[in-house]
Design a protein that fits this description.
heterotrimer, A alpha+beta, B alpha+beta, C alpha+beta, A: alpha+beta, Gyrase A, domain 2, Alpha-Beta Plaits, Elongation Factor Tu (Ef-tu), domain 3, seven-stranded mixed β-sheet, 22% helix, 28% strand, C: alpha+beta, Folate-binding fold, four-stranded antiparallel β-sheet, two-stranded antiparallel sheet, 36% strand, GcvT/YgfZ/DmdA (chain A), Sarcosine oxidase subunit alpha family protein (chain A)
Amino acid sequence: MTSSRLSKGGRIDRSRSIRFLFDGKAYSGHPGDTLASALLANGITLFGRSFKYHRPRGVFAAGSDEPNALVTVLSGDVREPNVRATELEIFDGLVTRSQNRFPSLEHDFLAVNQLAGPLFSAGFYYKTFMGPAIGPLRGTRFWMFCEKFIRRAAGLGKAGTSPDPERYERMNAFCDILVVGSGPGGLIAAEAAAATGARVIIAEERPLAGGSLLASGEMIDGRNPAVWAREKAEALASLPNVRFLTRTSVWGYYDGNVLTAVEHVSDYKPNRTKGLARQRHWVIRTGRVILATGAFERPMVFPGNDRPGVMLADAMRRYAIEYGVATGSAVTLFTNNDSAYDAARALSIGGVNVVAIVDVRPDISGTCRDIASVAGAELLLGHAVTATHAGKTLSSITVQHFNAETGRVSGAPREIRTDSLGVSGGWSPAIHLASQAGGKPEWDEDLQAFLPPEPNQNWVMTGSAAGYMDTISVMSDAATKGSAKSRLVLPAVEAPMLDSSPAPVFEIEPAIKSQKAFVDFQHDVTADDIRLAYREGFHSVEHLKRYTTLGMATDQGKTSNVPGLAIMADVRGISIPQAGTTRFRPPFTPVSLGALAAERHGDLRPHRLTPMHDWHLANGAKTYEAGLWHRPMIYSSHGETIEQAYTREAKAVRDSVGIVDVSTLGKIDIQGPDAAEFLDRVYTNMFSTLPVGKARYGLMLREDGIAFDDGTTWRLGETQFLMTTTTANAGPVMQHLEYYLDCVWPELRVHLTSVTDVWAGSAVSGPKARAVLEGCVTGTKVDNDTLPFMGIVRGKIADVPVMICRLSFSGELAYEVYCGAGYGVHIWEALLAAGKPFAILPYGLEALGTLRIEKGHVTGAEIDGRTTAHDLHLDWMLSKKKPFIGSAMVHREGLKNENRLSLVGLISLDNQSINGGSHIVTDPRPREPADSFGHVTAACYSPALGKYIALALVKHGTSMIGNRAFATDLLRDKHCAVEIVSHHMFDAEGSRMHG
Amino acid sequence: MAEPRSPLGKAFVAGDHGNHAAGIGVTLRERKNLSIIQITAWADSIPAVLTAIGSATGLVLQNKPGLGRVAGEKSVFGFAPGRYFVVSATPDLETRLRSAISAELGTMVDLTHGRTVIRIGGPRSEWVISKLFAIDFSEHAFPVAYGRATLHHDIHTNIQRIDDETFDLYVFRTFARSFWLTLGHAAEEVGYRVE
Amino acid sequence: MIIRCPYCGPRDVIEFTYQGDATRRRPDPASSDQDAWNSYIYDRTNPGGSHREFWLHGGGCRQHLVITRDMTTHAISSVAFARSIVAGESS
């Protein structure tokens, strides 16, 4: 038994108990506890096994910098791995599990990995798996063989496979000033900023405001600093221009002063009210940022420094002051700076027994000596810890003489009995966000730390993040950073005078090492790994990081960054600033994918529904998603296959009449005196000659001469057109047109408006289509004279105004009937009623596809961004009378080469269906590898021909007509003998639609 | 003539939803039977178009980005250079605008069927729509009667502020049901009423 | 990233679509000079500093903008409507 709850102290509510599970065992804690503090209070010091070596690990820190104590939180079938026990607030019913151990935390088989230490050293993967062939095993093969064993052995927690039922949401916020952190610097800066009337957001990572004040032994205005902080925070939160967010970690700093944060809205609540998110992803756009992010204490690197019971001195202090937990019954401290004395002072005030302070420095100030003596701790100056010893938990440390100038260890080892060692290697300002923002950090010799860079966006840094290490200077700096004209009266601070500069000692390296000395605890990177990387030629910090994975774990090197750089600088014989540092990248703390996805998952991604959508569903439509649209695929009668259904539907169109929902077609209103001229420029064919009341099929190219989109455009008036586009290209075509009007031809007076959603469209096709219209249209005739092919009339159906254009995609006599979208169902039903005598059938996309394949009409499957008008036999549409977009490039030699793929039809010779995407080959099972000379773009069963057919793009297409080949689908091992035919497979003369 | 059908369909469920036990944070309703006309002025005729809109509707605007006016069911606002929505519950709006705005001044498109107008009101409306749109809804950044064009993921939306806690959201009709569900989902936290 | 649209004000980059190099000039439509067209369609400079680009504010006013942006820092030094800039330059 080592750690335990102190009889008094801490901001926990001792009057209430909380029950939770860790590795199946029940424990209790109090409101205000984290999982780490509660387990420590229960005497638990072993929290997990390490990444590579499966070494036992305990809690090392008390906040977001924790590298070791990662747990998996279970909630029903949902598991969230790698949650820091130091930040996880306990609640009744919380279920947690330790990670990376097999079969249990206490007895871990894979701890034998430690014996294989050299095998897992830096560069292990590269060396083992990318080497030359060894016998039959090539490096990558060997990897494939080993992978599952390694994946099992190495790693952190396992992600769950169940869907996460929790709610996450995004919140957009705007403010004048964002203050990150609410320690003494953040609070004062926010107060000064708020006093100017500016809109202020304060984001605090922890549940309580106060930062370092929460565990300080100082007095502010004669009061407990935590109480002072709480009252200050409450006063700020009550201001109308301030939003105070707690449990909110700002994790990203992006261009334009856009910052991202995650608020833990209800993670810590056992019962949540309806609609409350678990986490809220804030995107904060701010005028100015005040980074009061504090500083992280650094560990020292020495043999055995990862043993459970060894932790940061500041963490030890926080467990005592904030949670009323003693991390041991006989505590020792090991330091290179004064802050450990401040910790010792707080610990002894809190009732923790400090037995010794080991300090690498030969001499220290009187203040520090006094603190040691008041605490009753033995002072070992000019000493260092050179080993740690343990049964299950830390039992003692070895101490030897140490020369801070030379770094040499000497003298006889002495053993000191201790069950908890607090380590302080100095402090690293939390410059992560500033570094993300893009600046290059600057090394400060005095603090032995990287300080924030020169701002390149509108931000300032204050508090210990800016290198101010005592509360008084933190507050006075923060007031001016909050507002240059601040008139805040700062509180009186009583604090011991301590020196904030550490001795430049990062590693204790005794001549004989019996234990590993860790730099990056989470990724199991040792000091020797860094030296090995150096010997193997990885000198730059960027290479070092990638070769050893130093700083690449979920803690992003918060504790390991500077010690790692220091060791590399030392072996290279250069200074730390010469070695440089890597740039920090988002996220500062891990962010759940749920929070990033926010509401955009499951059924809340946007769906686009046509006005007739509900009708389709109510009438047996099976739909599929085409982009964001939901469209009927078939209308199934029971027991039918998809093929049977679309065959039935397509046949109805050829034999009598069918109706299909074409509301998804892109529709663009084009108006203005230059509208016709504009269309002449964007289409390959002429539109200025199109009479009012007529439509024309048009083809657009890209500037490079490749086909872009096709559709019909209707001239509704002298200066007004309605353009239709393919469903998929509605957005891109609009953007294309807007680009030319804005950026190329600003002189044209043309206005564009997307009217896709304004009109519901129903296409009535088949020999009886005209009869159907005659049965319901009023106000106009629809005979061949009034409404010829490509003609447009206006009239009414069931008293609703409609616009009817006679055009055909199916090859039959066909009409598109457009009405206001609100009347879509009304018109659709009226057309069905009028079609009843002719057994009209609604048809879906499959039948639509079948009809157009039979006709050889192209869609996006053929206009695929690689084909030209020539390839698709649409070169007759390329006007020679005028330039148009693509006209200068479309006649390039390479685009007319006979070798190009061009459009043909295929007819199955063996009555087998042809798979879409099949390749066209001469021999489906060649002895030697042979080239494919084309591919199938669309395939179906053709009721009109009684055969399986397809469209294909085939090399030398037209001259191949009459030849036989195979459509071969190697993935599904399906090979179909086909005859290559003209793409016009049905009614080549077009007599049916002109009838 | 038949009543135009709302795209919200079964997704529209009148009554209280979400965490309403703690009070109603927002109220949602669909504004129906509006006439929504988009007017776009040629670059050199914006002031003349504004005058014409003023004479046809009685709502006079100055030429300033996003400026709008609201008078009962009638409203007008700009959301792009020279482009305005003129909205009214009176069916003769289009005729009156057509006679006021000649081809020399600009063009008109009737978007009545193309947009669904959702009104969100209540003390938490700013909070709820801030979940969906990345624009600043505070009153000094977005004053009453002003218009905005923005988007929620793929859903392009025009927004007009009606008063300090009420907004009209104009969404494309085919997205309306999806958007309505998203909006209701976002509002569950504060409790919402559908009228 | 935030882009300050001259009509809509500061907006998130998600509302905008990059529409390419704004320094290139489209050859005379009637020209058949293949080199000029090739250069217009395929050649792009990638300066390590200030550059002019077209961006479409598709999630707002749907206007194309000409943005002058530093390619190394992403700092935007000017934003204007493409229509007025292009019209001004071609007149």
